[in-house]
Amino acid sequence: MWSGQPHPDEGHPPPLEAVPVSWKSCRESPGALAETSAGEGAQGEEGPAAAQLDVSRLRSSSMEIREKGSEFLKEELHKAQKELKLKDEECERLSKVREQLERELEELTASLFEEAHKMVREANTKQAASEKQLKEARGKIDMLQAEVTALKTLVITSTPASPNRELHPQLLSPTKAGPRKGHLRHKSTSSALCPIACPAAGHILTPDKEGKEVDTTLFAEFRAWRESPTLDKNSPFLGRVYREDVGPCLDFTVQELSALVRAAVEDNTLTIEPVASHTPPTVKAPAAEYGSTNTCALSGLARACRHRIRLGDSESHYYISPSSRARITAVCNFFTYIRYIQQGLVRQDAEPMFWEITRLRKEMSLAKLGFFPQEA
Question: pTM value?
């Protein structure tokens, strides 16, 4: 092995520079240098092929990277899809919970509204029942007040000084208890008022078997008056009755006294008393001419006067004949029935009330013409 430098004169090329080589590498692989030298020589000779090999290696490594990246992205996508699926399931569960709560809320609201409507209906029913009871109670109070007023009016005709034996039958002697004399109520009063004021007394209206036909004009006037009953004589119904029945029935010969009697009848302040056989005349002047039991103060005719009238709170009495008493009684019966209708004591349909008024008008017409029942 030559280790020196050649002489320049010998014509040899300059010596190669020494390349440091690891002794261990040379020892372990004796042929490594040769391979390396061969490889370098081959690399120098095959440079383009090595470059192509490097490019192919780079491509393969980039493909591997892409594949790994694609797998990673697929895994992430799969995880995201799982999370979305879980979230969808959670949303669906929450949506079901919300729908259930909404249904329960609607049912609760409906039940509350139904309960509220039920309470309102019950309250309205109770209020209507209370108002009905109040109205009935007021009607009963008005009826009782009217009955008390009527009883007071009847009681006024009987005083301790001059008791009304018709109202106090115990004062009659046994021999006179049968055919009672004195102040007898007209049959129109008992038939018209007893079924209303005292239904328990056994008084029943006798049905009229005669043929009847309702006058449409009169019935229309009565129905219009019945809607709001009043004692105003300017209404068509009462105006006709005043003109056709009341006026002529109370039109007596003595005009001044007739006017006073008519006003007292309208004001319900007229009192009719039976005349006692031992009571002297008490009529004041200038009525002395008609103050005899043998002369009627209204007609001026010589008649046996068994009754006398008193106007309001006046102390004067006027003796009247049976015919005059029948005419006054017929008008009083009509006004009494009209007042009962106005006070709401007559609870009938319009047609029966109309026929009762027609019957009372018939009684006035008969009394006006001089027909009256004879007393026993």
Answer: 0.45
How is 175-226 classified by DSSP, letter by letter?
Answer: GGSSS--S-PPPHHHHHHHHHHH-GGG---PPPP-S-----HHHHHHHHHHH
Residue 251, Ramachandran bin (φ over 0: left; ψ between -120 and 50: alpha; else beta): beta
Q: For residue 335, what are the CA distances in angstroms to 107, 122, 150, 156, 362?
A: 65, 44, 13, 18, 14
Separation of alpha carbons 327 and 248, rounded Å:
10
Q: How far apart are the first and last CA of the chain?
A: 197
- Across-strand partners of 318? 309
User: One-letter amino acid identity for 158?
Assistant: S
Tell me the β-bridge partners of 226. Answer: none
Closest residue by Cα to residue 354 from 178, 219, 242: 219
SS3 of residue 174 by DSSP? helix
Beta bridge partners of 310: 271
Of the candidates 255, 253, 262, 369, which has an alpha carbon nearest to the alpha carbon of residue 302?
253
Phi-psi region of 255 (alpha: psi -120 to 50; beta: other; left: phi over 0): alpha
What is the H or E stretch that residue 310 is in?
strand 307-311
In whole angstroms, give the CA distance from residue 237 to residue 223. 9
Average pLDDT over residues 22-42: 47
Q: How far apart are CA 169 and CA 179, in angstroms?
A: 12
- Per-residue pLDDT band for 27 (boundaries 50, 70, 90) equals very low
Q: How many CB atoms lie within 10 A of CB 31?
A: 9
Q: Which helix (H) or strand (E) holds 307?
A: strand 307-311
Residue ranges in the chain assigned as alpha helix (H): 23-28, 32-45, 47-156, 187-197, 216-227, 236-241, 247-249, 255-267, 322-342, 350-368
Confidence of residue 66 (pLDDT cuts 50, 70, 90): confident
Label residue 222 by pLDDT band (50, 70, 90): very high
Residue from 272, 364, 290 nearest 327 by CA: 364
At 175, the amino acid letter reads: T
The sign of the CA dihedral 343, 346, 352, 358 is negative
- For residue 333, the model assigns a pLDDT of 93
